[in-house]
């Protein structure tokens, strides 16, 4: 049985993951408007992945006989400065998600909630991978440069990374 505190914290995480899904959707739209289809595909997939992260917690709460709350989502921005800013902000957002997951893990330890502790380990690994992916993208942008002439090459690189991520996820069984 989950504590009230844990139920509330997991519901807050649902909202956090839901916001990430809608933020990445907004970024995908921005890229598509700029004809950067590789970056758009990457962000559409990230958005779907965040939705899946949200649903995993939603289902976990129900499985544990608790109330899962479908969250109100704050309106994400529709306009973004440039490609580098989008990925810098995405990395910063992922770091905040990691901190939030770490807080949940700390709470599970404090409450000797072994079921939630075990459940959260998937997120610990996922956050390590997501932060690493965003850092790789920023490294590539730093190497290529982000002037107007470079956008085509950035888009191709991110499309390649996107396809490699999809292939790796398929090999791992879809997550
Ligand atoms: Fe679900 Fe990227 O945090």
Task: Kindly describe this structure.
The longest helix is centred in the last third of the chain and has 31 residues. The model has no long low-confidence stretch (mean pLDDT 95). This protein has 5 helices and no strands. The radius of gyration is 17 Å and the shape is elongated. MU-OXO-diiron (FEO) binds next to helix 1, helix 2 and helix 3.
Features:
mainly alpha, 79% helix
Looking at the overall shape, the CATH architecture is Up-down Bundle
The whole-number mean of residue pLDDT values reads: 95
In this entry the ligands are: MU-OXO-diiron
How would the global form be characterised?
A: elongated
CATH topology: Ferritin
Low-confidence runs (pLDDT<50, min 5 residues)? none
SSE succession: HHHHH
Helix content: over 70%
Largest sheet descriptor: none
Number of strands: 0
Number of helical runs? Answer: 5
CATH homology superfamily: Ferritin, core subunit, four-helix bundle
N- and C-termini, Cα separation: 27 Å
Q: Provide the number of structural domains.
A: 1
Percent range for β-strand residues: under 5%
Structural class assignment = mainly alpha
Summarize the helices and strands and which ones pair or pack:
Layout: H1 4-33, H2 37-63, H3 83-110, H4 114-144, H5 151-172
Helix pairs in contact: 1-2, 1-3, 2-5, 3-4, 4-5
Short description:
The protein has helices spanning 4-33, 37-63, 83-110, 114-144, 151-172. It has 175 residues and is mainly alpha-helical.
